[in-house]
Design goal:
The chain is an alpha+beta fold. 31% of the residues lie in helices and 25% in strands. The chain folds into 3 domains: 5-117, 3-Layer(aba) Sandwich (Rossmann fold), CATH 3.40.50.20; 146-211, Dna Ligase, domain 1 (2-Layer Sandwich), CATH 3.30.1490; 216-328, ATP-grasp fold, B domain (D-amino Acid Aminotransferase, Chain A, domain 1), CATH 3.30.470. The structure holds adenosine-5'-diphosphate and magnesium ion.
């Protein structure tokens, strides 16, 4: 074991998906190839402080407090108590949602010019915001649901009638930039409307309201860059008493869903899903990996619902399952993702930062 690369696994975070991230990171920490890599578990507390933890633990603040050195020539992590520098070769954010999946952490790592696994600032920010993502996907020719969007400042002017006229009933109300179905409601009557808006605005400045698509929930895993590869699609069948794929159905109730990997679909639909998913990944400038979530109607119409630039790695998560179906073990998957990131970082070195000019300053 000569030079194992030190992989800083960032987890937790200031997000409603804090707990989901801990569960994802626990699996990455367990399955990462220890012959090739030395994992350094770095927990981000709910108030945003960084700690080196003993394994991946929910008791993040029991760890050793850390800081980042913002010196791009000699970047790294500092142990705050001793002032000692901790060497890191690459960052692997296993963070979901706010501040972790939306480009914030990605910007921090980019500013110190360190390699980082996964989508960068642009793609993370674009994918995280469901309004911006849908506009870009539409422009790229990727089919998406009809939608309307509103800012909190417009809260009192949002009209139920206008929405029903444009999108029909039922419709979906969602926070623009969250995940794990937090701030998501299905609205089937006027009575449910105000509560749904309050729930979504509670977590976000913006909401997106979408036409309800009656369809199957299909997911496709993508990885790599030149060109990206698509897995076979998987399907999540949600028990009928859930109105949609809620937080509890995702993570709490083990009997809420049946997962089919691969999904039982016509060859033609499989190809269509894979092609649309790669197109969506490229349109949103995703890098290294992402999971594309789609709806498939009984007429064979496919819509992209959203792209998760850091999909879950929990025990019930589809992303690793879909690669396993293709013969890629969890351990090999992690190695591949880290390799993609190192390759990308090396390829970016050709880009010049300076520019000779006669500018006086
Ligand atoms: N337009 C829609 N039509 C039907 N169901 C939807 C629609 N949008 C979301 N849903 C349901 O809500 C769930 C969560 O919505 P999603 O946009 O994926 O948010 P999140 O980022 O929280 O996962 C979806 O998995 C699906 O079950
Ligand atoms: Mg989703």
């Amino acid at each position: 074991m000569t030079s194992r690369k030190k992989v800083a696994i960032l987890y937790g975070g200031r997000s409603v998906e804090h707990g989901v991230s801990v569960n994802s990171a626990r699996n990455i920490f367990e399955f990462i190839d220890k012959e090739l890599f030395e994992p350094l578990p770095i927990g981000i507390s709910e108030s945003g402080q960084w700690f080196l933890t003993q394994g991946v633990s929910k008791d993040i603040t029991q760890g050793k407090p850390l800081g980042l050195t913002l010196d791009a020539k000699n970047p790294g992590i500092i142990m705050l108590a001793s002032g000692d520098r901790m060497k890191v070769d690459i960052f692997f954010p296993v963070l979901h949602g706010t501040d972790g999946e939306d480009g914030s952490i990605q910007g921090l790592v980019k500013a110190i010019d360190m390699p980082m696994v996964g989508t960068g600032v642009l793609g993370s920010a674009a994918s995280m915001n469901k309004i911006i993502a849908k506009r870009l996907l539409k422009e790229a020719g990727v089919p998406v649901t009809k939608f309307l969007d509103y800012n909190f400042s417009q809260r009192n002017a949002i009209s139920f009638e206008t929405i029903v006229n444009k999108l029909g009933l039922p419709f979906m109300v969602k926070s623009a930039s969250l995940g794990s179905s937090v701030g998501v409601s299905k609205v089937s009557s006027r009575d449910e409307f105000n509560q749904a808006l309050d729930d979504s605005f509670r977590f976000d400045q913006e909401v997106i309201i979408e036409e309800f698509i009656q369809g199957r929930e299909i997911e496709c895993a993508i990885m790599g860059n030149n060109p990206p590869q698509a897995s076979n699609p998987g399907e999540i069948i949600i028990r009928k008493d859930y109105a949609f794929y809620t937080f509890d159905a995702k993570y709490v109730d083990p009997d809420a869903v049946t997962i089919h990997v691969p999904a039982v679909l016509d060859k033609r639909i499989i190809q269509k899903v894979r092609k649309i998913s790669v197109k969506a990944y490229q349109a949103l400038r995703c890098e290294d990996f992402a999971r594309v979530d789609l709806f498939l109607t009984s007429e064979g119409k496919v819509y992209v619902n959203e792209i998760n630039s850091i999909p879950g790695f929990t025990n019930s998560s589809m992303f690793p399952m879909m690669w396993k179906e293709k013969g890629v073990t969890f351990t090999d998957l992690i190695t591949k993702l880290i390799d993609f990131a190192f390759e990308r970082h090396a390829a970016h070195k050709r880009i010049e930062r300076g520019f000779q000019s006669n500018l006086n300053y």
